[in-house]
UniProtKB/TrEMBL annotation:
Topology within the bilayer: Multi-pass membrane protein
One Pfam family cited in the UniProt record for this chain: NFD4_C
InterPro entries associated with the record: MFS_trans_sf (IPR036259), NFD4_C (IPR056555), Nodulin-like (IPR010658)
Transmembrane segments: 24-47, 59-82, 88-111, 155-178, 184-204, 216-235, 247-268, 341-359, 410-429, 435-458, 524-545
Region (Disordered): 289-310
Coiled-coil positions: none
Main location: membrane
Nodulin-like domain segment(s): 23-267
Protein name as annotated: Nodulin-like domain-containing protein
NFD4 C-terminal domain mapped to chain residues: 341-551
Length: 580
Protein backbone atom coordinates (compact mmCIF):
# COMPACT_ATOMS: atom_id res chain seq x y z
CA UNK A 1 0.00 0.00 0.00
CA UNK A 2 1.31 3.50 -0.84
CA UNK A 3 0.22 6.64 0.94
CA UNK A 4 1.19 9.90 -0.77
CA UNK A 5 2.21 12.73 1.48
CA UNK A 6 1.94 16.32 0.32
CA UNK A 7 4.75 18.86 0.17
CA UNK A 8 5.17 22.21 1.88
CA UNK A 9 4.93 22.39 5.61
CA UNK A 10 3.64 18.85 5.80
CA UNK A 11 6.83 17.74 4.08
CA UNK A 12 8.93 19.23 6.85
CA UNK A 13 6.86 17.51 9.50
CA UNK A 14 7.06 14.23 7.61
CA UNK A 15 10.85 14.55 7.35
CA UNK A 16 11.15 15.13 11.11
CA UNK A 17 9.02 12.07 11.75
CA UNK A 18 11.13 10.13 9.25
CA UNK A 19 14.28 11.08 11.19
CA UNK A 20 12.79 10.24 14.59
CA UNK A 21 11.58 6.85 13.37
CA UNK A 22 14.76 5.95 11.51
CA UNK A 23 17.67 3.67 12.33
CA UNK A 24 20.13 6.53 12.63
CA UNK A 25 18.21 8.39 15.32
CA UNK A 26 17.79 5.10 17.16
CA UNK A 27 21.57 4.73 17.00
CA UNK A 28 22.03 8.28 18.31
CA UNK A 29 19.77 7.48 21.25
CA UNK A 30 21.87 4.37 21.86
CA UNK A 31 25.00 6.55 21.96
CA UNK A 32 23.48 8.71 24.70
CA UNK A 33 22.25 5.76 26.74
CA UNK A 34 25.64 4.04 26.53
CA UNK A 35 27.40 7.29 27.51
CA UNK A 36 25.52 7.07 30.80
CA UNK A 37 25.95 3.33 31.29
CA UNK A 38 29.51 3.33 32.61
CA UNK A 39 28.95 4.39 36.20
CA UNK A 40 30.80 1.28 37.39
CA UNK A 41 34.05 2.78 36.07
CA UNK A 42 33.70 5.66 38.54
CA UNK A 43 33.85 3.32 41.52
CA UNK A 44 37.47 4.35 42.10
CA UNK A 45 36.35 7.99 42.51
CA UNK A 46 33.58 7.51 45.08
CA UNK A 47 34.81 4.30 46.74
CA UNK A 48 37.04 6.27 49.10
CA UNK A 49 33.98 8.27 50.18
CA UNK A 50 32.16 5.04 51.02
CA UNK A 51 35.21 3.72 52.86
CA UNK A 52 35.60 6.86 54.97
CA UNK A 53 31.97 7.59 55.83
CA UNK A 54 31.03 3.98 56.62
CA UNK A 55 34.35 2.99 58.22
CA UNK A 56 35.18 0.04 55.95
CA UNK A 57 38.60 -1.63 55.64
CA UNK A 58 40.16 -2.49 52.30
CA UNK A 59 38.85 -6.06 52.27
CA UNK A 60 35.28 -4.83 52.75
CA UNK A 61 35.75 -2.23 50.03
CA UNK A 62 37.12 -4.92 47.72
CA UNK A 63 34.02 -7.01 48.52
CA UNK A 64 31.82 -4.10 47.42
CA UNK A 65 33.92 -3.86 44.28
CA UNK A 66 33.30 -7.53 43.60
CA UNK A 67 29.53 -7.15 43.91
CA UNK A 68 29.75 -4.12 41.66
CA UNK A 69 31.56 -6.25 39.07
CA UNK A 70 29.13 -9.10 39.67
CA UNK A 71 26.16 -6.88 38.92
CA UNK A 72 27.87 -5.24 35.95
CA UNK A 73 28.75 -8.52 34.27
CA UNK A 74 25.99 -10.96 35.17
CA UNK A 75 23.51 -9.87 32.54
CA UNK A 76 21.82 -13.18 31.83
CA UNK A 77 18.55 -11.90 33.34
CA UNK A 78 18.46 -8.89 31.01
CA UNK A 79 19.21 -11.16 28.06
CA UNK A 80 16.44 -13.62 28.89
CA UNK A 81 13.96 -10.77 29.48
CA UNK A 82 14.90 -9.32 26.08
CA UNK A 83 14.13 -12.66 24.41
CA UNK A 84 10.47 -12.49 25.52
CA UNK A 85 9.74 -8.75 25.88
CA UNK A 86 10.10 -5.57 23.81
CA UNK A 87 13.11 -3.29 24.08
CA UNK A 88 11.20 -0.54 25.86
CA UNK A 89 10.44 -2.88 28.76
CA UNK A 90 14.12 -3.84 29.07
CA UNK A 91 15.10 -0.16 29.26
CA UNK A 92 12.42 0.62 31.85
CA UNK A 93 13.55 -2.20 34.13
CA UNK A 94 17.15 -1.02 33.84
CA UNK A 95 16.21 2.57 34.68
CA UNK A 96 14.33 1.47 37.81
CA UNK A 97 17.23 -0.71 38.99
CA UNK A 98 19.81 2.01 38.37
CA UNK A 99 17.96 4.66 40.34
CA UNK A 100 17.05 2.37 43.23
CA UNK A 101 20.55 0.95 43.74
CA UNK A 102 22.61 4.13 43.55
CA UNK A 103 20.03 6.31 45.32
CA UNK A 104 20.17 3.99 48.33
CA UNK A 105 23.99 4.19 48.32
CA UNK A 106 23.77 7.99 48.23
CA UNK A 107 21.31 8.04 51.15
CA UNK A 108 23.68 5.78 53.12
CA UNK A 109 26.75 7.93 52.46
CA UNK A 110 25.11 11.24 53.39
CA UNK A 111 23.60 9.71 56.54
CA UNK A 112 19.93 10.14 55.64
CA UNK A 113 19.30 6.54 56.62
CA UNK A 114 20.89 4.42 59.32
CA UNK A 115 24.20 2.80 58.45
CA UNK A 116 23.36 -0.26 56.35
CA UNK A 117 24.86 -3.67 56.88
CA UNK A 118 27.65 -4.70 54.53
CA UNK A 119 25.38 -7.22 52.80
CA UNK A 120 22.82 -4.48 52.20
CA UNK A 121 25.43 -2.25 50.57
CA UNK A 122 26.48 -5.20 48.43
CA UNK A 123 22.89 -5.59 47.23
CA UNK A 124 22.55 -1.86 46.49
CA UNK A 125 25.71 -1.64 44.41
CA UNK A 126 25.00 -4.94 42.66
CA UNK A 127 21.50 -3.76 41.76
CA UNK A 128 22.73 -0.41 40.43
CA UNK A 129 25.58 -1.95 38.47
CA UNK A 130 23.38 -4.65 37.00
CA UNK A 131 21.21 -1.98 35.40
CA UNK A 132 23.92 -1.28 32.84
CA UNK A 133 23.30 -4.77 31.41
CA UNK A 134 19.75 -3.70 30.61
CA UNK A 135 21.12 -0.63 28.83
CA UNK A 136 23.61 -2.82 26.97
CA UNK A 137 20.95 -5.33 25.98
CA UNK A 138 18.47 -2.68 24.96
CA UNK A 139 20.83 -0.36 23.09
CA UNK A 140 23.83 -2.44 21.99
CA UNK A 141 22.08 -5.64 20.93
CA UNK A 142 19.39 -3.72 19.05
CA UNK A 143 21.98 -1.60 17.22
CA UNK A 144 24.05 -4.64 16.24
CA UNK A 145 20.95 -6.27 14.79
CA UNK A 146 20.11 -3.07 12.90
CA UNK A 147 23.67 -2.81 11.47
CA UNK A 148 24.94 -6.43 11.39
CA UNK A 149 27.51 -5.88 8.62
CA UNK A 150 29.28 -3.21 10.67
CA UNK A 151 29.06 -4.90 14.05
CA UNK A 152 32.74 -4.36 14.87
CA UNK A 153 32.47 -0.62 14.29
CA UNK A 154 29.09 -0.55 16.01
CA UNK A 155 30.21 -2.31 19.17
CA UNK A 156 33.43 -0.28 19.25
CA UNK A 157 31.52 3.01 19.11
CA UNK A 158 28.84 2.03 21.63
CA UNK A 159 31.28 0.55 24.14
CA UNK A 160 33.58 3.50 23.46
CA UNK A 161 30.93 5.94 24.63
CA UNK A 162 30.49 3.74 27.69
CA UNK A 163 34.22 4.04 28.32
CA UNK A 164 33.97 7.83 28.08
CA UNK A 165 30.95 7.97 30.37
CA UNK A 166 33.12 8.25 33.47
CA UNK A 167 34.86 11.37 32.20
CA UNK A 168 31.59 12.82 30.83
CA UNK A 169 29.72 12.36 34.11
CA UNK A 170 32.70 13.79 36.00
CA UNK A 171 32.45 17.01 33.97
CA UNK A 172 28.69 17.16 34.51
CA UNK A 173 28.87 16.66 38.27
CA UNK A 174 31.63 19.27 38.60
CA UNK A 175 29.45 21.74 36.69
CA UNK A 176 26.22 20.94 38.55
CA UNK A 177 27.34 19.99 42.06
CA UNK A 178 30.96 21.11 42.37
CA UNK A 179 33.82 18.90 43.57
CA UNK A 180 31.71 16.66 45.80
CA UNK A 181 32.07 12.88 45.51
CA UNK A 182 28.80 12.32 47.37
CA UNK A 183 26.90 14.29 44.75
CA UNK A 184 28.57 12.20 42.06
CA UNK A 185 26.72 9.17 43.45
CA UNK A 186 23.44 11.13 43.19
CA UNK A 187 24.20 12.03 39.55
CA UNK A 188 24.92 8.38 38.79
CA UNK A 189 21.51 7.54 40.28
CA UNK A 190 19.30 9.86 38.23
CA UNK A 191 21.05 10.64 34.92
CA UNK A 192 21.28 7.16 33.31
CA UNK A 193 17.72 6.42 34.41
CA UNK A 194 16.50 9.67 32.84
CA UNK A 195 18.20 8.89 29.52
CA UNK A 196 16.55 5.48 29.33
CA UNK A 197 13.13 6.99 30.08
CA UNK A 198 13.53 9.70 27.42
CA UNK A 199 14.46 7.28 24.64
CA UNK A 200 12.43 4.30 25.83
CA UNK A 201 10.40 4.11 22.58
CA UNK A 202 13.15 5.25 20.22
CA UNK A 203 15.41 2.21 20.39
CA UNK A 204 13.89 -0.77 18.60
CA UNK A 205 14.85 -3.41 16.07
CA UNK A 206 14.29 -2.54 12.41
CA UNK A 207 14.70 -4.21 9.04
CA UNK A 208 18.33 -4.54 7.94
CA UNK A 209 19.04 -2.11 5.08
CA UNK A 210 22.39 -1.86 3.32
CA UNK A 211 23.56 1.64 2.44
CA UNK A 212 26.67 2.27 0.31
CA UNK A 213 28.05 5.07 2.50
CA UNK A 214 27.29 3.40 5.82
CA UNK A 215 30.97 3.00 6.68
CA UNK A 216 31.58 6.69 5.97
CA UNK A 217 28.91 7.66 8.49
CA UNK A 218 30.52 5.46 11.11
CA UNK A 219 33.94 6.99 10.46
CA UNK A 220 32.46 10.47 10.92
CA UNK A 221 31.10 9.31 14.28
CA UNK A 222 34.52 7.91 15.08
CA UNK A 223 36.19 11.27 14.42
CA UNK A 224 33.64 13.07 16.59
CA UNK A 225 34.14 10.61 19.43
CA UNK A 226 37.92 10.96 19.22
CA UNK A 227 37.64 14.75 19.40
CA UNK A 228 35.38 14.36 22.43
CA UNK A 229 37.88 12.00 24.09
CA UNK A 230 40.81 14.34 23.43
CA UNK A 231 38.86 17.29 24.78
CA UNK A 232 37.99 15.37 27.93
CA UNK A 233 41.60 14.29 28.38
CA UNK A 234 42.98 17.82 28.01
CA UNK A 235 40.26 19.26 30.25
CA UNK A 236 40.91 16.65 32.92
CA UNK A 237 44.63 17.34 32.96
CA UNK A 238 44.04 21.11 33.10
CA UNK A 239 41.63 20.72 36.00
CA UNK A 240 44.39 18.98 37.96
CA UNK A 241 47.06 21.52 37.01
CA UNK A 242 45.14 24.74 37.64
CA UNK A 243 42.19 25.76 39.78
CA UNK A 244 38.96 25.90 37.77
CA UNK A 245 36.15 28.27 38.68
CA UNK A 246 32.56 27.07 38.60
CA UNK A 247 32.03 28.96 35.34
CA UNK A 248 34.95 27.11 33.78
CA UNK A 249 33.44 23.79 34.85
CA UNK A 250 30.15 24.83 33.24
CA UNK A 251 31.91 25.71 29.97
CA UNK A 252 33.76 22.38 29.96
CA UNK A 253 30.52 20.46 30.55
CA UNK A 254 28.72 22.45 27.83
CA UNK A 255 31.41 21.71 25.23
CA UNK A 256 31.37 18.03 26.24
CA UNK A 257 27.61 17.84 25.73
CA UNK A 258 27.83 19.67 22.39
CA UNK A 259 30.38 17.16 21.11
CA UNK A 260 28.32 14.29 22.47
CA UNK A 261 25.29 15.49 20.49
CA UNK A 262 27.28 16.15 17.28
CA UNK A 263 26.61 12.71 15.72
CA UNK A 264 22.96 13.76 15.46
CA UNK A 265 23.96 16.29 12.79
CA UNK A 266 25.69 13.56 10.80
CA UNK A 267 22.64 11.34 11.05
CA UNK A 268 20.24 14.13 10.01
CA UNK A 269 22.39 14.80 6.96
CA UNK A 270 22.25 11.11 6.08
CA UNK A 271 18.49 10.97 6.48
CA UNK A 272 18.12 14.16 4.40
CA UNK A 273 20.05 12.58 1.53
CA UNK A 274 17.79 9.50 1.71
CA UNK A 275 14.69 11.71 1.82
CA UNK A 276 15.76 13.75 -1.25
CA UNK A 277 16.58 10.62 -3.23
CA UNK A 278 13.17 9.19 -2.36
CA UNK A 279 11.44 12.33 -3.64
CA UNK A 280 13.54 12.17 -6.82
CA UNK A 281 12.62 8.54 -7.41
CA UNK A 282 8.91 9.29 -6.90
CA UNK A 283 8.49 12.40 -9.04
CA UNK A 284 9.07 14.97 -6.31
CA UNK A 285 6.72 13.41 -3.78
CA UNK A 286 7.93 11.59 -0.69
CA UNK A 287 6.04 8.36 -0.37
CA UNK A 288 5.54 6.40 2.77
CA UNK A 289 5.66 2.79 1.67
CA UNK A 290 4.15 0.33 4.05
CA UNK A 291 5.87 -2.94 3.27
CA UNK A 292 4.42 -6.35 3.88
CA UNK A 293 5.30 -7.86 7.25
CA UNK A 294 8.37 -10.10 7.28
CA UNK A 295 7.64 -13.66 6.24
CA UNK A 296 6.94 -16.07 9.03
CA UNK A 297 8.95 -19.21 9.47
CA UNK A 298 7.80 -22.11 7.31
CA UNK A 299 6.39 -24.81 9.56
CA UNK A 300 8.19 -28.11 9.71
CA UNK A 301 6.77 -30.94 7.60
CA UNK A 302 4.26 -33.27 9.16
CA UNK A 303 6.77 -36.09 9.24
CA UNK A 304 8.71 -34.15 11.85
CA UNK A 305 5.62 -34.14 14.05
CA UNK A 306 5.11 -37.84 13.49
CA UNK A 307 8.69 -38.50 14.46
CA UNK A 308 8.63 -36.13 17.43
CA UNK A 309 9.77 -38.93 19.72
CA UNK A 310 12.83 -39.48 17.56
CA UNK A 311 13.54 -35.73 17.52
CA UNK A 312 13.31 -35.58 21.30
CA UNK A 313 15.71 -38.47 21.69
CA UNK A 314 18.20 -36.77 19.38
CA UNK A 315 18.12 -33.46 21.31
CA UNK A 316 21.25 -34.45 23.22
CA UNK A 317 23.17 -35.20 20.05
CA UNK A 318 22.07 -31.89 18.46
CA UNK A 319 23.44 -29.94 21.41
CA UNK A 320 26.80 -31.69 21.56
CA UNK A 321 27.46 -33.31 18.17
CA UNK A 322 25.26 -31.75 15.49
CA UNK A 323 25.98 -28.07 15.98
CA UNK A 324 25.58 -25.53 13.16
CA UNK A 325 28.58 -24.22 11.27
CA UNK A 326 30.36 -21.23 12.83
CA UNK A 327 28.51 -18.04 11.98
CA UNK A 328 25.08 -19.68 11.85
CA UNK A 329 22.50 -19.26 14.61
CA UNK A 330 23.30 -21.52 17.56
CA UNK A 331 20.75 -22.26 20.24
CA UNK A 332 21.64 -21.02 23.72
CA UNK A 333 22.66 -24.48 24.94
CA UNK A 334 24.63 -25.28 21.79
CA UNK A 335 26.65 -22.10 22.21
CA UNK A 336 27.18 -22.30 25.97
CA UNK A 337 28.30 -25.94 25.82
CA UNK A 338 30.66 -25.47 22.88
CA UNK A 339 34.45 -25.68 23.09
CA UNK A 340 34.80 -22.20 21.55
CA UNK A 341 32.71 -20.66 24.32
CA UNK A 342 34.72 -22.53 26.96
CA UNK A 343 37.97 -21.09 25.61
CA UNK A 344 36.44 -17.61 25.51
CA UNK A 345 35.33 -18.12 29.11
CA UNK A 346 38.87 -18.94 30.26
CA UNK A 347 40.42 -16.02 28.36
CA UNK A 348 37.78 -13.63 29.72
CA UNK A 349 38.19 -14.89 33.28
CA UNK A 350 41.93 -14.25 33.15
CA UNK A 351 41.97 -11.05 31.11
CA UNK A 352 38.95 -9.11 32.31
CA UNK A 353 39.30 -10.47 35.86
CA UNK A 354 42.82 -9.06 36.12
CA UNK A 355 41.90 -5.78 34.42
CA UNK A 356 38.88 -5.23 36.70
CA UNK A 357 41.07 -5.84 39.72
CA UNK A 358 43.54 -3.22 38.52
CA UNK A 359 40.80 -0.69 37.74
CA UNK A 360 39.08 -1.12 41.11
CA UNK A 361 42.33 -0.68 43.02
CA UNK A 362 43.82 2.16 40.98
CA UNK A 363 42.91 4.80 43.55
CA UNK A 364 44.49 2.86 46.41
CA UNK A 365 47.51 1.99 44.25
CA UNK A 366 48.22 5.68 43.69
CA UNK A 367 47.90 6.36 47.41
CA UNK A 368 50.22 3.50 48.35
CA UNK A 369 52.88 4.78 45.94
CA UNK A 370 52.73 8.27 47.46
CA UNK A 371 50.93 10.18 44.72
CA UNK A 372 48.76 13.13 45.83
CA UNK A 373 44.97 12.84 45.59
CA UNK A 374 44.71 15.19 42.62
CA UNK A 375 47.21 13.06 40.69
CA UNK A 376 45.33 9.87 41.60
CA UNK A 377 42.17 11.35 40.11
CA UNK A 378 44.16 12.07 36.95
CA UNK A 379 45.09 8.38 36.77
CA UNK A 380 41.44 7.41 37.02
CA UNK A 381 40.42 9.90 34.32
CA UNK A 382 43.22 8.74 32.03
CA UNK A 383 42.13 5.17 32.59
CA UNK A 384 38.56 6.02 31.58
CA UNK A 385 39.64 7.91 28.45
CA UNK A 386 42.11 5.25 27.28
CA UNK A 387 39.42 2.69 28.01
CA UNK A 388 37.53 4.50 25.26
CA UNK A 389 40.48 4.42 22.85
CA UNK A 390 40.86 0.68 23.48
CA UNK A 391 37.21 0.07 22.63
CA UNK A 392 37.36 2.19 19.50
CA UNK A 393 40.63 0.57 18.42
CA UNK A 394 39.44 -2.99 18.88
CA UNK A 395 36.18 -2.21 17.10
CA UNK A 396 37.34 -0.26 14.05
CA UNK A 397 40.86 -1.60 13.61
CA UNK A 398 39.85 -5.23 14.05
CA UNK A 399 36.99 -4.69 11.58
CA UNK A 400 39.31 -3.08 9.04
CA UNK A 401 41.95 -5.80 9.40
CA UNK A 402 39.29 -8.49 9.13
CA UNK A 403 37.73 -7.06 5.96
CA UNK A 404 41.00 -6.22 4.22
CA UNK A 405 43.39 -8.94 5.34
CA UNK A 406 41.16 -11.60 6.98
CA UNK A 407 43.02 -10.94 10.24
CA UNK A 408 41.22 -13.05 12.90
CA UNK A 409 39.54 -11.06 15.63
CA UNK A 410 40.56 -13.82 18.04
CA UNK A 411 44.24 -13.06 17.36
CA UNK A 412 43.59 -9.41 18.19
CA UNK A 413 42.32 -10.56 21.60
CA UNK A 414 45.56 -12.47 22.21
CA UNK A 415 47.65 -9.37 21.44
CA UNK A 416 45.51 -7.22 23.73
CA UNK A 417 45.98 -9.66 26.64
CA UNK A 418 49.76 -9.63 26.14
CA UNK A 419 49.69 -5.83 26.22
CA UNK A 420 47.74 -5.96 29.48
CA UNK A 421 50.54 -8.03 31.05
CA UNK A 422 52.93 -5.10 30.51
CA UNK A 423 50.65 -2.65 32.33
CA UNK A 424 50.24 -5.01 35.28
CA UNK A 425 53.99 -5.50 35.58
CA UNK A 426 54.51 -1.71 35.62
CA UNK A 427 52.46 -1.62 38.82
CA UNK A 428 54.24 -4.62 40.31
CA UNK A 429 57.65 -3.01 39.66
CA UNK A 430 56.98 0.75 39.78
CA UNK A 431 59.32 3.59 38.97
CA UNK A 432 58.71 7.37 38.99
CA UNK A 433 55.82 8.13 36.66
CA UNK A 434 55.17 4.47 35.83
CA UNK A 435 51.59 4.67 37.08
CA UNK A 436 50.77 7.15 34.31
CA UNK A 437 51.90 4.62 31.70
CA UNK A 438 50.27 1.72 33.54
CA UNK A 439 46.88 3.49 33.73
CA UNK A 440 47.00 4.15 29.98
CA UNK A 441 47.96 0.56 29.08
CA UNK A 442 45.48 -1.05 31.49
CA UNK A 443 42.67 1.30 30.45
CA UNK A 444 43.39 0.64 26.75
CA UNK A 445 43.64 -3.15 27.07
CA UNK A 446 40.62 -3.37 29.38
CA UNK A 447 38.53 -1.35 26.94
CA UNK A 448 39.70 -3.40 23.96
CA UNK A 449 38.70 -6.75 25.46
CA UNK A 450 34.95 -6.09 25.76
CA UNK A 451 34.17 -5.19 22.10
CA UNK A 452 36.31 -8.10 20.95
CA UNK A 453 34.47 -10.51 23.24
CA UNK A 454 31.01 -9.27 22.19
CA UNK A 455 31.87 -9.24 18.48
CA UNK A 456 33.47 -12.69 18.50
CA UNK A 457 30.37 -14.14 20.17
CA UNK A 458 28.10 -12.58 17.54
CA UNK A 459 30.30 -13.87 14.72
CA UNK A 460 30.74 -17.44 15.97
CA UNK A 461 27.23 -18.10 17.31
CA UNK A 462 24.91 -15.83 15.26
CA UNK A 463 22.50 -13.06 16.23
CA UNK A 464 19.28 -14.98 16.93
CA UNK A 465 19.99 -15.40 20.66
CA UNK A 466 22.66 -12.72 20.90
CA UNK A 467 20.97 -10.81 23.72
CA UNK A 468 21.39 -13.83 25.98
CA UNK A 469 24.70 -15.15 24.64
CA UNK A 470 26.68 -11.93 24.93
CA UNK A 471 25.50 -11.53 28.51
CA UNK A 472 26.45 -15.14 29.27
CA UNK A 473 29.84 -14.59 27.67
CA UNK A 474 30.88 -12.01 30.22
CA UNK A 475 29.96 -14.13 33.24
CA UNK A 476 33.62 -15.12 33.57
CA UNK A 477 34.52 -11.51 34.33
CA UNK A 478 32.95 -11.25 37.83
CA UNK A 479 34.20 -14.74 38.68
CA UNK A 480 37.73 -13.69 37.73
CA UNK A 481 37.31 -10.47 39.69
CA UNK A 482 36.15 -12.37 42.77
CA UNK A 483 39.09 -14.77 42.70
CA UNK A 484 41.76 -12.22 41.82
CA UNK A 485 40.43 -9.21 43.70
CA UNK A 486 38.56 -10.50 46.76
CA UNK A 487 40.60 -13.63 47.40
CA UNK A 488 44.05 -12.51 46.22
CA UNK A 489 44.64 -8.75 45.98
CA UNK A 490 42.58 -7.55 48.97
CA UNK A 491 43.95 -10.01 51.56
CA UNK A 492 47.55 -9.56 50.35
CA UNK A 493 47.16 -5.76 50.62
CA UNK A 494 45.72 -6.04 54.14
CA UNK A 495 48.56 -8.37 55.12
CA UNK A 496 51.13 -5.76 54.09
CA UNK A 497 49.14 -3.05 55.90
CA UNK A 498 49.14 -5.11 59.11
CA UNK A 499 52.90 -5.49 58.82
CA UNK A 500 53.19 -1.70 58.69
CA UNK A 501 51.04 -1.41 61.83
CA UNK A 502 53.23 -3.93 63.66
CA UNK A 503 56.33 -1.94 62.80
CA UNK A 504 54.66 1.12 64.34
CA UNK A 505 53.62 -0.83 67.42
CA UNK A 506 49.90 -0.50 66.65
CA UNK A 507 47.05 -3.02 66.35
CA UNK A 508 44.09 -3.26 63.97
CA UNK A 509 41.71 -2.01 66.66
CA UNK A 510 43.70 1.20 67.07
CA UNK A 511 43.05 2.48 63.51
CA UNK A 512 39.83 3.12 61.60
CA UNK A 513 41.06 1.86 58.24
CA UNK A 514 43.99 -0.20 57.04
CA UNK A 515 46.43 1.75 54.87
CA UNK A 516 49.61 0.46 53.27
CA UNK A 517 52.34 2.72 51.93
CA UNK A 518 55.17 1.49 49.72
CA UNK A 519 56.00 -0.51 46.59
CA UNK A 520 55.47 -3.81 48.41
CA UNK A 521 51.71 -3.21 48.92
CA UNK A 522 50.65 -4.37 45.47
CA UNK A 523 53.80 -6.04 44.15
CA UNK A 524 52.96 -9.70 44.76
CA UNK A 525 49.27 -9.39 43.76
CA UNK A 526 50.13 -7.78 40.43
CA UNK A 527 52.83 -10.31 39.63
CA UNK A 528 50.12 -12.94 40.07
CA UNK A 529 47.71 -10.93 37.90
CA UNK A 530 50.30 -10.63 35.12
CA UNK A 531 50.89 -14.40 35.16
CA UNK A 532 47.16 -15.13 35.06
CA UNK A 533 46.65 -12.74 32.13
CA UNK A 534 49.52 -14.36 30.24
CA UNK A 535 47.84 -17.74 30.73
CA UNK A 536 44.63 -16.25 29.28
CA UNK A 537 46.57 -15.02 26.25
CA UNK A 538 47.95 -18.51 25.65
CA UNK A 539 44.46 -19.99 25.98
CA UNK A 540 43.11 -17.55 23.39
CA UNK A 541 45.74 -18.78 20.92
CA UNK A 542 43.89 -22.11 20.89
CA UNK A 543 40.77 -20.28 19.72
CA UNK A 544 42.84 -18.53 17.05
CA UNK A 545 43.87 -21.92 15.65
CA UNK A 546 40.31 -23.30 15.83
CA UNK A 547 38.73 -20.31 13.99
CA UNK A 548 41.47 -19.63 11.44
CA UNK A 549 39.55 -21.10 8.50
CA UNK A 550 36.30 -19.43 9.57
CA UNK A 551 37.82 -15.94 9.47
CA UNK A 552 39.40 -16.61 6.07
CA UNK A 553 35.90 -16.75 4.57
CA UNK A 554 33.25 -14.03 4.12
CA UNK A 555 31.57 -14.00 7.52
CA UNK A 556 29.07 -11.29 6.45
CA UNK A 557 27.96 -12.97 3.24
CA UNK A 558 24.35 -13.59 4.26
CA UNK A 559 23.84 -9.92 5.17
CA UNK A 560 25.10 -8.66 1.81
CA UNK A 561 21.98 -9.96 0.08
CA UNK A 562 19.81 -7.29 1.76
CA UNK A 563 18.39 -4.44 -0.40
CA UNK A 564 19.98 -1.02 -0.13
CA UNK A 565 17.41 1.35 -1.57
CA UNK A 566 16.23 4.45 0.29
CA UNK A 567 12.62 3.38 -0.26
CA UNK A 568 13.30 0.29 1.80
CA UNK A 569 14.86 2.44 4.49
CA UNK A 570 11.70 4.52 4.70
CA UNK A 571 9.56 1.45 4.68
CA UNK A 572 11.59 -0.03 7.45
CA UNK A 573 11.25 2.96 9.74
CA UNK A 574 7.55 3.45 9.21
CA UNK A 575 6.56 -0.20 9.43
CA UNK A 576 8.51 -0.63 12.63
CA UNK A 577 6.95 2.46 14.13
CA UNK A 578 3.44 1.16 13.50
CA UNK A 579 4.16 -1.89 15.61
CA UNK A 580 4.80 0.20 18.75
Amino acid sequence: MVETQGGGGDGGVQFVLHVLRGRWFSLFASFLIMSGAGATYLFGVYSQEIKNTLGYDQTTLVLLGFFKDLGANVGVLSGLIAEVSPTWFVLLVGAAMNFTGYFMIWLSVIGKISKPKVWQMCIYICLGANSQNFANTGALVTSVRNFPESRGNMIGLLKGFTGLSGAIMTQLYLAVYGNDAQSLILLIAWMPAALSLIFVYTIRQMKVVRQPNQQTVFFHCLLISIVLALFLMVTTLLEKAISFSHAAYVVAATVSCALLFSPLLVFIREELAIWRQMKQNNGGVANTIVENPPPTEIPQPQKDQVNSKTSTSSCFSKIFFEKPARGEDYTILQALLSTDMLILFVATLCGLGSSLTAVDNMGQIGGSLGYPKTTVKSFLSLLSIWNFFGRIFSGFVSESLLVRYKFPRTLMMTLVLLLSCIGLLLIAFPFPGSLYVASIIIGFSFGAQLPLLFTIISELFGLKYYSTLFNCGQLASPLGSYILNVKVTGPLYDREALKDLEKKGLTRASVKELTCIGNQCYQLPFIILACVTFFGAMASLILVARTRQFYKGDIYKKFKEQPNTPDTEMASSNTTNKTI
